[in-house]
Amino acid sequence: MKLITISVSHYVEKVKWALKISGIPFEEESHLPGIHAAVTLWLTRGAHRSTPVLIDGNQVIADSTRILRHLATKYRQKWLYPIPQALELEERFDKNIGPHTRRFIYEQFFEHGFSVAELYDQKVAIPWQKAILPAFAPLMKEVMIRDMAINPAAAEKSRAQFEAEFEFAEKRLADGRMYLCGDTLTAADITFAALSAPVILPQGYGARLPKPEDAPVGSRMRQLIEAYRVRPAGQFILRLYKENRHTPIKIPAENY
Ligand SMILES: N[C@@H](CCC(=O)N[C@@H](CS)C(=O)NCC(=O)O)C(=O)O
To answer: Which terminus of the chain, N or C, has fewer Cβ atoms within 10 Å?
Structure first.
């Protein structure tokens, strides 16, 4: 199996997490943002441009949720969707968290001068892409700002949207349940944790992210990240990263 990625992507992280704990070996082929589209559009015959894209033998599956559903059906990873609500929550978080944590954190990264070249210099599969990265980075940054509408007003709206989902998750967890759908880890949990990771910066993320301490002391970015990390949903995400991100899933398929 081959996973086509932009390595640092949080939607990619969601799929890497599911593959890893399902014990399904895969090879990652990472590309620079922008150049990735030549690969993803070619593989999907023009149908899909974003990463992740999974190549499983002669099957090409684009979109993180479709990939997880493929793992659940073809590889009997029934822990992902023990009840229909797991998929409903996954789709909700894909829409309400993914684009917003990304916009918010990039705006903060750029505000504090984080290097785009450093962020993307991870597992770049093709040597010429790695070679052009330093020269290509300023253009990449301009395109990201344009394509993801990265500006202070939009970033603040995205932060508020993320916070609403954070509160939604906290309400579900308030009855003491271990996971968002009950007693077992599902696709809803890994989606919530992976897509929130850019503003929680947990240890164990499947690519190199900045650490909370990299944000300047007293900056709004540092204060917000620290505040999100200590909240119940933040603690939940840190726990999932510690206990479930790299530990093979133990629930036998026949239990469902
Ligand atoms: N709905 C998609 C969203 C994936 C997505 O937005 N991927 C981003 C990286 S975080 C990407 O590849 N962006 C570049 C593009 O869309 O061309 C999924 O769940 O896989």
So the answer is: C
254, burial (CB in 10 Å: exposed 0-12, middle 13-18, buried 19+):
exposed
Which atom of ligand 1 sits closest to the CA of residue 99? Answer: 6
| DSSP run (H or E) holding 5 | strand 2-5
Q: Is the CB of 108 under 6 A from ligand 1?
A: no
Ligand 1 atom 17: residue of nearest CA: 50
Contact 120 CB / ligand 1 (< 6 Å) = no
Q: How far is residue 198's CA from residue 194's CA, in Å, rounded to a whole number?
A: 8
- Residue count of the chain, please give it: 256
Structural domains in the chain, sorted by start: 2-78 (3.40.30.10), 84-247 (1.20.1050)
Atom number, ligand 1, closest to the C-alpha of residue 15: 20
Q: What sign does the CA torsion over 84, 87, 90, 95 have?
A: negative
Cα–Cα nearest to 86, from 179, 197, 15: 179
251 falls in which pLDDT band (50, 70, 90)?
Answer: low
- pLDDT at residue 255, rounded to an integer: 53
25 Cα: distance to centroid of ligand 1 (angstroms): 22
Q: Whose CA is nearest to atom 11 of ligand 1?
A: 50
Q: For atom 2 of ligand 1, which residue has the closest CA?
A: 63
pTM: 0.96
Residues 21, 246: contact at Cβ < 8 Å?
Answer: yes
